[in-house]
Amino acid sequence: MTTAARRSARATVLIDATGPRDAVVFSRASPAYAYGDDGALVLHAPDVARIDHDPQTGALLGTLFEPETTNMLAHAHASVSQWDQNGGSGTDQTLNALGVFAGFSEASTGASYQRLNHPYVALVAGTTYTVSIWLRAGTSPNLRAVFRTSGGHQTNWGGPISALGPLAQGASGMVSGYAQKTLMDGTILLQLVFIPEHTTSYSIGIGPYSAVAGEDVVILGMQLEAGSRPSSFITTSGTPATRAADMAGTTGISGPHRITITYDDDSHDLIPLAPVTDGYWPPLSRPHVKRMTAVAV
Length: 297
Fold this sequence. Notes:
This protein is 2% helix and 50% strand. By secondary structure, the chain is mainly β. It has 2 domains: 117 residues, no CATH class; 174 residues, Jelly Rolls (Sandwich), CATH 2.60.120.
């Protein structure tokens, strides 16, 4: 291509604010959730790209690309019928938090250990897992998350909701990473990176961490996945479930192209000489893509 032709070459838009464009073939073999601009979770049908938003602000993040991921928990939605109550008193709610969670109020009856546990799930010692917990603050100023083995080893994480931290580390494993967000509708999202000490079954519980009778916390749902990076919500109902990978490839353009990718944080990747053929897709540094263009070179 001559210099003049290069200057006049027009960019082919592969992704913009509306998602993948005509020069992209997109697929995903399962439904999948993303956040809408109102902060609610929106279920997208198979083969429909997800335009994701920041659940704290509603700002556009871009088209979401995630690998295949499994929620290892059989019951993603907290309820007294599917989870196990370890003391305290509880009531199922009808909140429709984030458009998907009914909720469960776990109240102390005078002991700080009381909590609602997701039933046991098998974990492997030394493996990294991420636990995402959706909840609402109740009348207790505190909360506690508990990782407990079937043999009685226990690791606790919690304290005041505004300043959570380690309470007792190491007996059943270590919390090596932690993030907390308050979402648009008041839901609190906790994300804990946990490395178990034992290869055995674990329960994961949440409670108000209060010895004051009646103080409660509202538990909405939970997700457990392998790895240190949390992904989008995967609903389950009685068995673990897998969200298929988001797949994309170019169509109708070929030859060497300069690929420019803009991510949710406005950072960029530039591939100066990509060998584009049908089905080509560049490696992505981040899961959210705001814009992608290809220019023939």
